[in-house]
Each structure stands twice: as structure tokens, then as C-alpha cells.
């Protein structure tokens, strides 16, 4: 019984350690996502600067030729669309990581609760067995006493 209880406690400790490791890993993943987001924000700033520069060039070239200005506007629109898509993908990846962390945390908490519940059930069963054994011992002692008196 003590061995079973010890094994259950070890399993619970393992689950708690696993939860802590999972949380640490998820924190690292989120930190990495934030680092990537910061890099993209830097790229966004640089792209915005490039856009400002391109707009200045566009204004100059509009005076020269409408066709060249149209090509610059198309490039500018494509760069803005690509940047917006990159930012949206990063946000989606970050949300996915947060959801995965929440799901993993919930699963580990459920497993921990189930383990604690199983431990409680095992202790209750052992207490019942001890009580039954005590009652049986009392009956046997009574029978032995009666047998001794009979002789």
C-alpha cells in the first residue's frame, strides 16, 4: 500500500514537473514570437521609411512620366500587402502558441486532478480494508477466547 502511494506521489511529482517544463517551453515560444514580432516591427519601420522615400521619388517621377509612377505605386502596394500579411501571420502564430499552451496546461491540470482523485480513492479503499481486517481480527480473537473457555 505504501509502495502504491509512493508510486502515485512520484507520478504526481512527474506530472507537476512536466507541467512546469511545458509552461517554461511555452514561455520560450511566446518570447521567441515576441522577438520575431519586434523584428517585424523594425522591418515595418524600415518599410515605412522606404515607403516615404518611394513616395518622394514617385512625386518627382510623376512630373516626368505617369507610367513610371504607376509602376512605383504597384510596388508600394505589394510591399504594404506583404508586410500586412507577415504581421497577420505572426499574430496568428502567437495566438496558436497561446492556445496550445492553454490546452496543454488544461490537460496537465486534468491529469493532476485525476491523479489526486485516484490517490484519495486508494487511501479510502485501504482504510476500508484495514477496518475490515480489524473487525475480522476481533471475530477471530473472540472465537479463540470462546474456544479456550470451552476447553
Short description:
By secondary structure, this protein is mainly alpha-helical. The chain is 98% helix and 0% strand. The protein has helices at residues 2-64, 66-150.
Structural class determined from secondary elements = mainly alpha
Query: Describe the biggest sheet?
Result: none
From the spread of the alpha carbons, the general shape counts as rod-shaped
Rg: 35 Å
> How many helical elements?
2
Alpha carbon gap, first and last residue = 39 Å
Work out the oligomeric state of the chains in this entry. single chain
Low-confidence stretches are none
What order do the helices and strands follow? HH
User: Quick one: how many beta strands?
Assistant: 0
Helix fraction, binned, reads over 70%
Q: How large is the share of residues in beta strands?
A: under 5%
Q: What is the averaged pLDDT score?
A: 88
Keywords:
151 residues, mainly alpha
Describe this structure in words.
Helix content is 98%, strand content 0%. The protein has helices at residues 2-64, 66-150. It is rod-shaped, with a radius of gyration of 35 Å.
Show the helix and strand layout.
Elements: H1 2-64, H2 66-150
Amino acid at each position: 500500500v505504501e509502495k502504491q502511494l509512493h508510486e502515485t506521489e512520484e507520478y504526481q511529482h512527474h506530472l507537476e514537473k512536466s507541467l512546469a517544463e511545458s509552461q517554461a517551453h511555452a514561455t520560450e515560444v511566446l518570447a521567441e514570437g515576441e522577438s520575431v514580432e519586434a523584428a517585424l516591427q523594425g522591418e515595418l519601420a524600415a518599410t515605412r521609411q522606404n515607403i516615404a522615400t518611394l513616395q518622394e521619388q514617385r512625386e518627382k517621377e510623376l512630373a516626368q512620366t505617369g507610367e513610371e509612377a504607376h509602376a512605383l505605386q504597384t510596388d508600394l502596394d505589394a510591399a504594404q500587402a506583404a508586410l500586412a500579411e507577415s504581421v497577420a501571420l505572426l499574430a496568428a502564430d502567437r495566438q496558436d502558441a497561446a492556445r496550445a499552451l492553454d490546452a496543454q496546461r488544461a490537460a496537465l491540470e486534468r491529469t493532476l486532478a485525476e491523479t489526486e482523485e485516484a490517490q484519495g480513492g486508494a487511501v479510502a479503499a485501504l482504510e476500508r480494508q484495514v477496518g475490515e481486517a480489524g473487525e475480522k481480527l476481533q471475530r477471530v480473537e473472540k472465537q479463540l477466547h470462546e474456544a479456550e473457555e470451552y476447553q
